[in-house]
């Protein structure tokens, strides 16, 4: 074989090899799918804890979900509005989102109902699950749902115990709550025997709005006796709406009555203490659950996780109301506002 023929064949095979490699790369690139962009609906149902969304999104970013690149959030906010819960949940279903994140309890129940018969998973947070029918069990929630449990009954009992430390002589505790709200029953079932054992009478006040709370308080004022020794909040939405809080906190300030449960302040009026969960952490805890679901794990097989409570004391407000805060209680507090 002469040298020219050898060189020609060499170049032929070399060019052929290059073409094969280039062709393979082209075909491979054509087959590469674009990365999945997840669409997540977020039903933020209570302004008091709306920062849950911030905690959730921040943690999702840590987990590699970049908003606008591989995930899109449709955040729908409302403040304790049952009709809006239904509307928003239906919107997410109609939009065929990949997953729904929802809080608090009542909104969670509506999201679960709206997604029945679909393949849309639901991850809740800041939701009380005891007696609500939201999950089958903590270990195996079942269906299309999992989430972050709000330890409501536990928190209610701790609020009662804190109030007893602040006002040991209080024998009549005025307890307001949203009429017919489903999470109230389990809390009262735990609180009533504890109050009875402590010799405390619970003055239960179901109401629909701030005006009804105002009317009840006004009717209880008889001469020097206002008919109650302390105001205690359950875990429910009415007491943490600004209008209702203002009504109760003004009354407490006028009559020097200890008031507490959920830490809030409106127009300079507020409560002495709050026992709650950190809403930012509630959002953060939901993110790993969402990550597992988006990566293919069925929601109903992922165990529910629980939030932990923390104690806040508004020492400044206690002084305004003439309530002495024991040093032992101050040492227990996770946060003291002075």
Descriptive account of the structure:
The chain has eleven helices and 15 strands. It has 338 residues and is α/β, with parallel strands linked by helices. The chain folds into two domains: 144 residues, Rossmann fold; 152 residues, Response regulator (Rossmann fold). Strands 7-6-8-9-12-14-15 form a seven-stranded mixed beta sheet, sandwiched between helices. The protein has a six-stranded parallel beta sheet with strand order 2-1-3-4-5-13, with helices on both faces. The longest helix is centred in the N-terminal third of the chain and has 29 residues. The radius of gyration is 28 Å and the shape is elongated. The N and C termini lie far apart (98 Å).
Shape: elongated
| Strand and helix order | HEHEHEHEEHEHEHEHEEEEHEEHHE
Mean pLDDT rating: 92
The CATH topology assignment of the largest domain is Rossmann fold
Structural class assignment = alpha/beta
Strands side by side in the biggest sheet: 7-6-8-9-12-14-15
What's the CATH H-level superfamily name of the largest domain?
Response regulator
Report, as a whole number of angstroms, the end-to-end distance: 98 Å
CATH architecture of the largest domain: 3-Layer(aba) Sandwich
The radius of gyration is 28 Å
**Could you describe the largest sheet, including whether it forms a barrel?**
7 strands, mixed
- The residue ranges in which pLDDT falls below 50 over 5 or more consecutive positions are none
Task: Give the proportion of residues in helices.
Answer: 40-55%
The number of domains: 2
Number of helices: 11
Q: What is the CATH C level class of the largest domain, in words? A: Alpha Beta
- The amount of beta strand, in percent, is 15-25%
Strand element count? 15
